[in-house]
Design brief:
4 helices, elongated, mainly alpha, 97 residues
C-alpha cells in the first residue's frame, strides 16, 4: 500500500471501527465475552468451535436452490406459461428466418 503525503499508512487514517480486525483480536474478544457470560469451560469451548459451519451454510443454500428449482418447475408446467414461451420462440424464429 502507498502512503499519503504525510507519510502515514492509509489504514491509520481510518477510524477504529473501519479497520479490519485480525483473527487474534476477534479470538480475544470472543474469549472475553465467554468469560463475562460465566459459561462452563466445556460449553465455552463448544461455542468457540466453528467446525461444520461452512458445511451447514452450503446445506442451507442447496436446500434453497432446490426449493427455487421446484417452484420454477411448477410455474413452467402451467399451460399459460407454456403458451407464452411457445409464442416467444415462434416469434423469435419467424423474425430471424
Amino acid at each position: 500500500m502507498t502512503h499519503d503525503a504525510r507519510g502515514a499508512h492509509p489504514l491509520s487514517a481510518r477510524p477504529l471501527s473501519a479497520r479490519p480486525m485480525s483473527t487474534t483480536a476477534l479470538s480475544t474478544i470472543r474469549k472475553v465475552a465467554m468469560n463475562k457470560l460465566h459459561l462452563s469451560p466445556r460449553l465455552a469451548r463448544l461455542l468457540r468451535q466453528e467446525r461444520g459451519a461452512a458445511t451447514a451454510e452450503y446445506g442451507i443454500v442447496i436446500m434453497a436452490a432446490v426449493g427455487f428449482a421446484g417452484l420454477l418447475v411448477v410455474i413452467l408446467r402451467s399451460e399459460e406459461v407454456r403458451g407464452i414461451l411457445t409464442d416467444l420462440v415462434r416469434n423469435a424464429l419467424a423474425f430471424g428466418g
